[in-house]
Amino acid sequence: MKIDLTETNSSKINAAMVQARRDIGTPAIGMVLTLVIVTDEENAYDALKSANDASHEHPSRIVVVIKRASRSPRSRRDARLDAEVRVGADSGSGETVVLRLHGELVDHAQSVVLPLLLPDAPVVVWWPDGAPQDLAGDPLGTLGQRRISDTYSCEDPIRELSARGASYAPGDTDLSWTRITPWRSMLAAALDQQTLSVASATVEGEDENPSCELLAMWLADRLDVPVTRTLSSGPGLTAVRLSTKDGDIVLDRADGSLATLCMPGQPDRAVALKRRDTAELLAEELRRLDPDNTYESALKFGVAKLQPSAPPVPPAKAETPAKAEAEPKPAAKPAAKPSKKAAK
Prior knowledge:
Layout: E1 2-5, H1 10-24, E2 33-39, H2 41-54, E3 60-67, H3 73-77, E4 80-87, E5 95-102, H4 109-113, E6 123-126, E7 146-149, H5 157-166, E8 172-174, H6 175-178, H7 181-192, E9 200-205, H8 210-223, E10 227-231, E11 237-244, E12 247-252, E13 258-262, E14 269-272, H9 278-286, H10 293-301, E15 307-308, H11 322-326, H12 340-343
Parallel strand pairs: 2-3, 2-6, 3-5, 6-7, 7-8, 9-10, 10-15
Antiparallel strand pairs: 1-4, 4-5, 9-11, 11-12, 12-13, 13-14
């Protein structure tokens, strides 16, 4: 069921949600949290689809905040709120409110969202794209116990990691960190089976992928060893190599779905390590609402402390016989004439 409201306010939106629940015969509220999505028109559809898929595991009220840019000075002064209320099959396992803010109301989005939050329930704020550097200091970010961003969508992900480390507050998290959860689990399990100490590590992945840097920082922080970040053609994170005195522990994923785990003294094993979609990542983050201390420690380790990869050595050029070609060859000596005695 979908209800469109034009030039409305928070009170009318709440009344529309109550009426919609009664109309479809579900007056009881069984939602466990409020998920606030801050996005734009371009990314709203994909973000809402992922949130609806995640709501099957975490029934929630989804509030989508879309800030509409005004082109003229007059329209920027006119504040207007349009909304869509979706209940039932159109909103996953909860209910959805799509807010479109116009004019001066764009700068006061928190005052519109606050009356729409579920009472006595946790609040999670998610920026699929265009997240502020200081998540906890953002007006909408102050409403949430948990704040989710994705540095992979930033223009300069590596520089953004440094900024996030400087402004980190308990409750901040990153989907780039969530993407490496299976990698961290697999590597931790591999180290539990070995009594050898790790001397160094190498993380290999595509360029401008913050998940690779986060995994490298996690290894350097937890193992206290030098970690080198090297580049590959992808997709995403492709390999991790842990060096020990008896050989390397290697987790290699070349195709983005199936990986090979190699350990000293053991046969190679194929392990499932597929790349997950946004709905799975979001559902994982919604399972915990407490601060992630491991993420904080890895993030504050800093990208600058990673070992830079050695530049590729250019192949040696073959020596050309330029000098020999430039110099003329000495003329051949004329054959000696036979002597008269020899001729006789």
